[in-house]
Amino acid sequence: MSLSPYASLPTASRGRRHPEPPAPTRDVFQRDRDRIVHSTAFRRLVYKTQVFLNHEGDLFRTRLTHSLEVAQLARSIARALKLNEDLVEAIALAHDLGHTPFGHAGQDALDACMADHGGFEHNLQSLRVVDALEHRYPQYDGLNLSFETREGILKHCSRSNAERIEAAEPGGVGRRFLERTQPSLEAQLCNLADEIAYNAHDIDDGVRSGLIGIDQLADVELFQRYRTEAMAEHPTLTGRRVLYETIRRMLSAQVYDVIDATQAAIDAAAPADADAARRAGPLVLFSGAMRTQSTELKRFLFANLYRHPQVMQTTGQAQTVVRELFDAYVAHPAEMPESFACRADAPRAVADYIAGMTDRFAMREHERLTGRVWVA
């Protein structure tokens, strides 16, 4: 398929931090995707929390399944807009590599632990993973990904962190946060596909868990509209098929909305190439009506699922595990592997080690160091 003029072209890539000869059968973004899939950090995502801890049920989403769903949605939209599907897939598969065990609870706890040492943010940690923490190649640390993939991975960044990145890599992936420009259209697309994916699958997992009921969603316009449509077309539909059909229709509506709204924004801006698209402001977006409905759904999930007492209890336990692991490793670095224990930047080394843990490994380490067993 031919790409649009404003898509990220592999032949126009800004390259890698460590120059390499091209691969004979893959372009730069295809190679990035393959390196991500074969990384250790990617495999760990299968045992990292999305909302529900891995041991709470085999069918709940994990960071890995979430990343796959984001990649699928993003590729579908990219194809319709003639953007670069391989770059979209690479960014989507890598965007959560820096997530801690126990989801956002783990991140918040680790950020608090690192308050006096530069803080902790999972988007920046994902970049650290692909730039430094993966040790697979003899010539360099990290995966040596292209600028465009790294740019997409760094979704958010504080000004202070952007200044540090810029000092180490002038004109690199931190520059746009200082100049207030946008990333590539492919990166913008992954950000929105991430939102679409987690809103949908958190409904599914929330209902499966029993923490929210399908009838509670009757006041959420984005859900109830497509539930009504599904029942009108299939009046005998019952059980989980009602939920699945509603979510399927809801996902399709959001995908088509993004395609239409984005194409209209691109047509209005008329960027000549990928760099012009970066300077044009946000171009990948929902329509106004869909943005309102998506925000309403997010508020519902926050109030009824993410703040559910059962989830909050687990969140509290998870944060205790992370805090106590951090304190134990800072006090006794030799409890970590030598590659972390010997580093001079001790608090950051501890944060890197904990962030790379799966849920179950973190629980085992906590039990080993404290003698206390996680009580579900």
From TrEMBL:
SUPFAM superfamilies, A to Z: HD-domain/PDEase-like (SSF109604)
Location of region: Disordered: 1-29
> InterPro entries per the record?
dGTPase, dGTPase-like, dNTPase_2, HD/PDEase_dom, HD_domain, PHydrolase_assoc_dom
Matching Pfam families: HD (PF01966), HD_assoc (PF13286)
Q: Name one GO biological process term.
A: dGTP catabolic process
Where does the UniProt annotation place the signal sequence? Answer: none
Per UniProt, what is one GO molecular function of this protein?
Answer: dGTPase activity
Q: Which residues form the HD domain?
A: 63-199
Keywords of the record: Hydrolase
PROSITE patterns tied to this protein: HD
Keyword Transport (UniProt): no
* Entry's family note: Belongs to the dGTPase family. Type 2 subfamily.
Q: Which NCBIfam families match?
A: dGTP_triPase (TIGR01353), PRK01286.1-1 (NF002326)
Return the protein name: Deoxyguanosinetriphosphate triphosphohydrolase-like protein
Q: Which organism is it from?
A: Variovorax guangxiensis
